[in-house]
Amino acid sequence: MRATSDRTSSGNAELDQILNGGLPSGRLYLLEGAPGSGKTTLALRFLLDGAARGERCLYVTLSETREELLAVAASHGFDLSGVDIFELSSAEAVLGEGREQSILHSWEVELGGMIQLIQNEVERVAPSRVVFDSLSEMRLLAQDALRYRRQVLLLKQFFAPRATTVLLIDDLTAGEEGRRDTHLHSLCHGVVTLERVTLDFGPARRRLQVQKMRGVDFVAGYHDFTIGRGGLQVFPRLVAADHHVPFVGDPLPSGIPELDALLLGGPLRGTSTLITGPAGTGKTTMALQYVDAACRRGEPCTIYEFDERIGTMMVRAAAMGLELAAHVERGLLRIVQIDPAEIAPGEFAWSVRREVEERGCRLLVIDSLNGYLAAMPQEQQLILQIHELLSYLNQRGVGTFLINPQHGLVGSMIPGSLNVSYLSDTVILIRFFEAQGRIRKAVSVLKNRSGPHEEAIRELRIDGEGVRVGAPLAEFRGILTGTPEYSGETGPLMEDRTRA
């Protein structure tokens, strides 16, 4: 049965999404990548998808044996019983008993015989989908680039009237003088490149790129992917502008009137709030206060924890009266522990998308930005990627809280090395100050892009009664040093309280 649609699925839903519907049917495509990048796995999924649709599918293996191919399929749980496999792994299989002759060069006979056997098998099976794995054998037999290109062109012309969708696999064997062989790109209707990058620490990163696809408005650029049992898990590059939904930008209250007064009601939905300050000032606890309040309103929330263990955070939250465990049991809160060096930026963005689009997440916390950057130290353009992710969350009306620890326990009030104006809409700064021989904490708002905010500095206390914010404190000195000193009366300052 032939495919009736003008598109043929690649067998991978996310790759089809990148291609805006799949591969144009009846064309010749090149799937290239270094060994171990996932080419064979993707090609098998391509054929299995066709077999599931009732199409005849043919896998022509020019280097691997049938047993090796079946072993690869078994490792992914694939059943190839519905796929025809044609094995051409040796010259004897091509030439038979007539290989000993002296009129023609052996490579001319081998290449011509191989192409003829493939054509005969295609005419016998009449497949809708064909995979050639791999072209390196044809390249070696052709001896020179011109003859190799001519043979591939003959294959393209052979398949054209048969409306067969063909996938050619190339392992990027170097051409003359070690140069990469790319002259097939012009012959193929589309080119998909798989890459495998080994980092200094952690697992290898894999990504794919659609180099060209005639007649298709595909999503350009690199897309991260992983290989697991069942095939490739592709994470399409996030384009925030494609995901806007209407929403009401109402405030997100914390449940603490004095804290909400700093932002005249709270940060708005569809904005990002950066909470910054030295270690130990209560940045995560403040974000958890907003999470607890949102869950009490029945809004799904998600916390991505890069730094602290989830168990430690839950114990600390319970001591302050925050019912995170109850929210988790009710399904309103999901806490995800991120293992450093085990996740790519695209995979993280895809996880966030699932939380928003499948769970309906309304408030999201990333703890912390430093942990995010440290988890992917060799990735390029991480700041641009996190900005695109925040833009996506803003487009979906999600309130986002980012935790950004300052360097050192005390010091400059500049929030680390990140461009906070570029990353966030609102910046809440927590810092230490001295008063009556004690180290205390102060909270203030540096900016609020979505509206006015209180300019006062208030005292912040986190104790047995949870998060408490005091009255505005006016008599400060040394504010710009990052460690201001309060010289006022003792009356406005708060005292420790222990929960009964």
Q: Helices and strands in order, then pairings?
A:
Layout: E1 7-8, H1 13-18, E2 23-24, E3 28-33, H2 39-52, E4 57-61, H3 66-75, E5 84-87, H4 91-95, H5 106-125, E6 129-133, H6 136-142, H7 145-159, E7 165-170, E8 190-197, E9 205-213, E10 222-228, E11 231-235, H8 257-262, E12 272-277, H9 283-296, E13 301-305, H10 310-319, H11 324-329, E14 333-337, H12 345-357, E15 363-367, H13 369-375, H14 382-395, E16 399-405, H15 420-423, E17 426-435, E18 438-448, E19 457-463, E20 466-473, E21 476-477, E22 485-486
Parallel strand pairs: 3-7, 3-8, 4-5, 4-6, 6-7, 12-16, 12-17, 13-14, 13-15, 15-16
Antiparallel strand pairs: 1-2, 8-9, 9-10, 10-11, 17-18, 18-19, 19-20, 21-22
Polypeptide structure, described:
With 500 residues, this protein is of the alpha/beta class. The protein folds into 2 domains: 7-237, P-loop containing nucleotide triphosphate hydrolases (Rossmann fold, 3-Layer(aba) Sandwich), CATH 3.40.50; 242-486, P-loop containing nucleotide triphosphate hydrolases (Rossmann fold). It has 15 helices and 22 strands. The strands form 4 sheets. Strands 5-4-6-7-3-8-9-10-11 form a 9-stranded mixed beta sheet, with helices on both faces. β18 (438-448) and β19 form a beta hairpin. α6 (136-142) crosses α7 and α12 (345-357) packs parallel to α14 (382-395). The protein is elongated and about 95 Å long. The termini are far apart. The relative contact order is 0.10. Mean pLDDT is 85; it is low at 90-95 and 98-107.
Distance, first to last CA: 74 Å
Strand content: 25-35%
Number of strands: 22
Number of domains: 2
| Quaternary structure state of the chains depicted | single chain
Q: Which architecture of the largest domain per CATH?
A: 3-Layer(aba) Sandwich
Biggest beta sheet summary: 9 strands, mixed
CATH class of the largest domain: Alpha Beta
Coarse structural class: alpha/beta
**CATH superfamily annotation of the largest domain:** P-loop containing nucleotide triphosphate hydrolases
* CATH topology annotation of the largest domain: Rossmann fold
What do the pLDDT scores average to?
A: 85
Q: Roughly how much helix do the residues carry, as a percent range?
A: 25-40%
> Can you tell me the residue ranges where pLDDT is under 50 for at least 5 consecutive residues?
90-95, 98-107
Give the count of helical stretches: 15
Task: Give the CA-based shape.
Answer: elongated
Strand order of the largest sheet: 5-4-6-7-3-8-9-10-11
* Cα gyration radius (Å): 30 Å
GO molecular function, one term: ATP binding
Organism: Aureimonas flava
EC number: 2.7.11.1
Domain KaiC: 6-248, 250-483
